[in-house]
Amino acid sequence: MSGTEKALQGVADTLREFWAHRPVRPRAGRKLGGVATGIALRYQIDPVIVRIAFVALALSGGVGLPMYLAGWLLLPEEGDAVSPLEALVNKGSSSMSQGQTVLLGVLMFPALAFTFGSGGFQVVVTIAASVACIYLLQKNRGHLAPAATLPETPASPVTPPVPGAPAWDPLGAAPFAWDLPEPAPRPQPPAPRPRKPRVGAVTLGVTLLVVAASAIAGAWVPWFTVPHVVGLALAVVAAGLLVGSFVGGGRALIWLLIPLSVAGFGLTTVGFDGPPNLGNVEATPKTLADVKDRYELGVGSVTLDLRELPDSGSVKTALESDLGELVVRVPQNADVTFECEASSIGELDCLGRKADGSSVRVDGTDLGSDGEGGLKIDLDVHTSVGNVRVFRD
Q1: Domain count, the chain
Q2: Within this chain, do residues 219 and 107 fall inside the same structural domain, yes or no?
Q3: Which strand (E) or helix (H) includes residue 344?
Q4: What is the DSSP string of 11-51?
Q5: In degrees, to the nearest 5, what angle opens at C-alpha 375 toward C-alphas 369 and 376?
Q6: Which of 148, 163, 179 corresponds to the end of one domain?
Q7: Could you read off the pLDDT of 334-352 as tens digits, one per residue?
Q8: Which domain holds residue 106?
Q9: 226-272 pLDDT, tens per residue?
Q10: Are residues 12 and 131 in the same domain?
């Protein structure tokens, strides 16, 4: 067997060992399904770190949501012989009802659709990194017993003293004439405080170095954009938290991970090609020539009122934003052809056709209350994140 085959065999054995001794979801101390608490108890790490990891994964393309649901379905609850999913296929009994198990399974489909619809390669890399973290946990801490099930050390039996004997002579070996006063206890020197590993300080220093080096490299290498630099900083902080979960310390990094995760989510979801254009745009053109070819905005709302246009002729325009609300009012009798889209996530309501969720789109033609004829309007309304409304009133 070659070295590569041995390495793959070792990885497979570790993952099989993880499944055989997988975490158990406790009934006490959990916030939702007990997945994060069960993992923390199994590997004796801080539950807050595991919860923050799930939140960070949820903000990184939505991976955390299906992973949490998978843990809920595949990890048994405290006191159960099998997991809810195994109980559903008659491999044992679980305290979760079959209806709840089916509901969690149904929720898995929109969670996976949102996750893989938000970014293919990035999602695959995130899932691979999560599996690697599970492998490292099992490899380095799989031998530890769950903190909730560690047996207590039995106390040593104490021989009862002979009645009348002093405490320093519980066997009563000395004559009572030797009943000396109790010896004064010697003062014990204070125990030295253990030094915690300086994981947080080291991680913060490495993060600042990475950001500074990326800013300098950005003058020559176009790849070092703001979203990429935030992603590099997020990776360094996440690595510091992972190291801290093994050696202790680094919990304060959570307060750095949260804003970086939110910033990374915003920068990857909303595509800014330059300085963001912020504010609100309202336009009420009165002639066909007044209608612009395009109304663009970075963050904010665009309201276009076309009800004062003449009753004949044709006009075509587009509305586009990165984050915000796009609203178009059209005349009652106009013939409207429309395409409405939210490329990342949003809610659409375009002349009665509705959709909401991740990467949604509706299109069609609405001839108004008088049927075909009159003013013709062609609309292309697109947002990355936000709401789109096209209506008559």
Answers
A1: 3
A2: no
A3: strand 335-350
A4: HHHHHHHHHHT---B-SSS-SSSSHHHHHHHHHT--HHHHH
A5: 95
A6: 148
A7: 999 999 999 888 899 999 9
A8: 8-148
A9: 777 777 787 788 777 777 766 666 667 777 777 777 776 666 555 44
A10: yes
